[in-house]
Amino acid sequence: MTTENPTSLRIHLTQYLLLRNRLGHNLADAARLLPRYVTYLEELGHSTVTIADALAWCQQPPSPPGSSVWPRRMGAVRGFARYLTGIDPATEVPPIGLLPSRRRWRPPFIYSPDDIAALLGAAAALSSPQRAATYSTLFGLLAATGMRVREALTLDSSDIDWDDGVVLVRESKFGKSRNVPLSDSTAEALARYASLRESFDCTPGNESYFVSLTGRRVIYESVFEVFADLRRGSGIGRQSTVAPRIHNLRHTFAVTVLLQWYRDGEDVAARLPRLSTYLGHRDPRSTYWYLSAAPQLLALAAERLEPTLPQVNS
DNA sequence: GGTGAGAATACGCTTCGGCT
DNA sequence: AGCCGAAGCGTATTCTCACC
């Protein structure tokens, strides 16, 4: 079974991706990276996945040593190789730990209330009234609810329950759906935009809540460019060592809620599951991740925990 | 059973070139 | 000018498994 030819390797790749997709995995990385890996093997005239070839391909320039790209490529190859072992026994599966991914922690930017006001003000001052309404409502929604950008952009008009003031987030990260309750002021802002939206020139069949000037659903890349302009123009984060990002609005939301609970003397551990559900996390362990975002919050947490710590000195 | 570490996976950030 | 979409890379969240 050592006579696999390049063509069959490519066919196996197609079948592998198809199978994983049917099992519910997107595997966008593998779909993008592995065809190049197969091409690499074909050019070498190799028809079997080996650890040596995998290492050589993963460490190809221009990505520098230590880049997150090397372990990312290796992860894709490992998955494919596991699948291939059932087809070609000569396949070598790169072991776990070969090109391990190094976790990096980059402190997130936490927006002050003034920062958020400046961002929303700058968005509302965009020259086109439609864009001003779209982006001030979008960034306002992100800041007020901690929703992910993708979740906001995939919202349809019908996903908003105006009677109960709730937004339905459908099929979000890892296929989960949830309801996000809105404050009165947020619901009012969304209703104002919904009313304006009726005057926008939408392409037929477009149900998206947020609409671009072309009448279509707003895409992430456009949001990024607008955000970058607004950030530069308003001077947000100019003194910060880390650049403010859109997703930091979610960090800021979570940290603000937690801080408020600590200040109010709430039983944070007991209430945390509610925040986890609100943010769309599977369990509170993911939410604890946000604790490391704000030193101020850690200090408060430590202060609260101190009386319960065992006394080690006599 | 609970927990921590690291792998696996999906969403986010950024750039770029092309289109309208 | 604004939007679109692909590509490469970064980060957030879940899964898995060894260890206690």
Automatic annotation (TrEMBL):
Record-level Gene Ontology MF annotations: DNA binding
Alphabetical keyword list: DNA recombination
Record has Nucleotide-binding as a keyword: no
Family annotation (Gene3D superfamilies): Intergrase catalytic core
Gene Ontology biological-process annotations: DNA integration; DNA recombination
Alphabetized PANTHER family for the sequence: PHAGE INTEGRASE-RELATED, TYROSINE RECOMBINASE XERC
Species for this entry: Rhodococcus opacus (Nocardia opaca)
Protein name: Putative integrase/recombinase
Domain Tyr recombinase: 106-303
Keyword Repeat: no
